[in-house]
Amino acid sequence: MKCQFCGRDHVDRVFYINWMGTVYQVPVCAGCLDKMWQQASAAGKTEEFKSYTGWWPGKQEPRRLGDRAFPELAVPGLINRRKLKALKARLTEAAEQEDYEEAARLRDDIAVIEREVCAHGN
Predict the structure, then answer these.
(1) For the domain that residue 26 is a member of, what is the CATH number?
(2) 111 and 55 in one domain?
(3) What is the pLDDT tens value at each position of the chain, 122 positions in all?
(4) Taking Cα atoms as reference points, which of 56, 58, 82, 68 lies closest to residue 16?
(5) What are the residue boundaries of the UVR domain, all occurrences included (predicted)?
């Protein structure tokens, strides 16, 4: 998926905007997100930026693409399959970046969800 702002292929973060009752998912790369933070800081709008994006420099766990990309009230099998797909994408990314601890954690999370999906036939 491409960054909404610069068009680069590598998107590692996402934020959501509630505009007039409709929630939009905005994929963004780390560089563009940092630039937007700098602009918000310069304009004195850091609190608004935090509330819109759910991210700020120094935050421990930035939201990643796929974290909330589906409705909470969806069929449980669909929720699990989408979580599985998002986790597998994050696993690939962690392996490419040689973050083996994160990759191992994701591998374990994937195994748990795969057991649930196979056990329920969803």
Answers:
(1) 3.30.60
(2) no
(3) 788 888 877 787 777 776 777 777 788 888 888 888 899 899 998 888 777 676 677 665 555 555 554 455 556 666 777 788 888 888 988 888 888 898 999 999 888 888 876 665 54
(4) 68
(5) 81-116
- Output 89-98 pairs: Cβ under 8 A, ≥24 positions apart: 89/65, 90/64, 90/66, 93/12
Same domain, 17 and 51: yes
Query: Alpha-carbon distance 57 to 50, whole Å?
Result: 10
Question: Same structural domain for residues 4 and 35?
Answer: yes
Question: pTM of the entire structure?
Answer: 0.42
Going by C-beta distance under 8 Å and a sequence separation of 6 or more, which residues neighbour residue 39? none
Question: Helices 100-120 and 76-96, interaxial angle, to 10°?
Answer: 160
Residue 74, amino acid: A
| C-alpha distance across the termini of the chain, in Å | 26
Instruction: Please state the φ and ψ torsions of residue 50, each to the nearest 5 degrees.
Output: -60, -40
